[in-house]
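Because showing beats explaining, we think one record worth quoting, sequence and backbone structure tokens together, and here it is:
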Amino acid sequence: MAKKQEEKKKQIPQQRTKKGVLAGILGLVTNLILFVSKLMIGLFSGSVSIMADAVNSLSDTASSILTLIGFKIAAKPADQEHPYGHERFEYISGLFVSIIITYVGFQFLESSAEKIIHPENVSLTPIVFFVLIISIFLKFAQGKMYQVIAQSIDSETLRATATDSYNDVFTTLAVLLSAAIEWVTGWRIDGYIGFVLALYILYSGLTMLRNFVYELLGSRPTPAEIEEMEEHLNACDDILGYHDLLVHNYGPNKRFASVHIEVDESMNLNVAHKIIDLIEKDFKKSLDVELVCHLDPMPVDNEKYYNILRQLKQILLETGTGLNIHDFRVIHQGKTLQFDVVVPEKFQFDDTELERILRSQIEEKIGDYQLEITFDHNYLLY
């Protein structure tokens, strides 16, 4: 049973790539069909609006090509120059799709503003109306296809491409709605409807652009992911605690993490190593995370150590909300206190001022010790 689950897990990246490539090919084919059909009808009918819509379909073809290339490159295995693989390229292709969406939004905003200043009649000939209706159905089906596959493989790039397809549906519907309202009431509101829709397209494009930039920069794991990792660490009864959990994302299926594991300093080193080895294997098997553990020995039976630690925690509590301590050591024959202070985001003091306050408080309340303080700005665990 376990072997079957392992084989299934190994197939997931391959299945993900196949589905992503399939989505790119289907999108490319439908966009090319739309482009060629609109271009031919536009040439035969002499309709400028259909010719312009054909050019828009050509830009959508570029998005499909980017999606296809993105999944192809992201599927390449790790090599000497890219030891963590190429999966982040999927984020890069999604970034370019978002740029295209944002650009289209700006162009649409500009043309809508022009129509507000200089209103024009929206005239739809039967052939133009027919082409727009066909385009709506095809684009909606394309967007739904992207959305379903994106959901099945959890791909932000395909979600961005789906949004691009739905935006085309909305823009075409805006043309039909404007024409219908003008035909019934005589009101020329094409520019106003287009302006509102352009703002929506810009919003969706910029939001996706921000998300992909965050992924490329190294965004924070979701609360659910952190909670899941904490649950697995808390389930280990042989450790005293843990801190400094760091998570690195190198693509949708490439997650690496490191954590400091606290154990009794009297524990046999081989036993301690076996414990962290089991934790690392559990993370890989259950969470598909490559975990590296660092051992921190703790003097469980040292009363003086815990008295000083309690006093340090009290000082931190009085200094500011959210301050925490870990990696506490009494070294150099008891003359030096060494510890890390976790500083919450947007804390009231900078590190220099905080160190000055702590040194003063420790000297006054604990004694004259040499201090080695490291300020930790890791925001995953507090």
About this structure: The beta strands are 241-249, 255-264, 289-298, 324-331, 336-342, 370-376. Residues 2-45 form the longest helix (44 residues).
